[in-house]
């Protein structure tokens, strides 16, 4: 998509959203590559940036990686829902995705992705002896051979798209009830 192109209908908009999500998972410089993920931490919201690793349109899933000891995985175990928020100034699009979250630390998905990742410098992110957020100077627990790698699957519950455009802003929602235009 280009910055000022107008999408003509809801089906075209949904296709374009998934195309951008798939591009974001592949292109390091894409604005949607690093969405903000908000989860629930007790009575409060907790938000952080994650890196989009895959977008599966047919399954309606987005994937990202995490340290298995990270607080977000504890939060997901208690309340497995979240919101991903993305903004692209180039497109003039905001995308808000309500998702059901699930982490996998073993099994085919995690094992196959770890087999590739462990050969890269990024593997060190998942081999750190201390969990994310642990104070420095605290004794580190023994290191796992495979590290603390987790694949997080975000299954799409709804997508709320907002287009900011010189000819007028538009908003649409895509969920189990279908697609519909909304007041921006």
Explain the overall architecture.
A hairpin with a 4-residue loop joins strand 3 and strand 4. The chain is built from 3 helices and 9 strands, in the order H-E-E-E-E-H-E-E-H-E-E-E. It has a single domain (10-133, 144-182), classed as Electron Transport, Fmn-binding Protein, Chain A (Pnp Oxidase, Chain A). The mean pLDDT is 93. It has helices at residues 10-26, 71-78, 108-117, and strands at 36-41, 44-49, 52-56, 61-67, 81-88, 93-104, 149-163, 170-175, 178-182. It starts with 9 loop residues before the first helix and ends with a strand. The protein has 184 residues and is an alpha+beta fold. Strands 1, 2, 3, 4, 5, 6, 7, 8 and 9 form a 9-stranded antiparallel β-sheet that branches.
Short note summarizing the structure:
The protein is of the alpha+beta class and about 180 residues long. It has helices at about 10-25, 70-80, 110-115, and strands at about 35-40, 45-50, 50-55, 60-65, 80-90, 95-105, 150-165, 170-175, 180. It contains three helices and nine strands.
Describe the protein's topology.
Blueprint: H1 10-26, E1 36-41, E2 44-49, E3 52-56, E4 61-67, H2 71-78, E5 81-88, E6 93-104, H3 108-117, E7 149-163, E8 170-175, E9 178-182
Antiparallel strand pairs: 1-2, 1-5, 3-4, 4-7, 5-6, 6-7, 7-8, 8-9
Organism: Caldimonas mangrovi
Protein name: Pyridoxamine 5'-phosphate oxidase
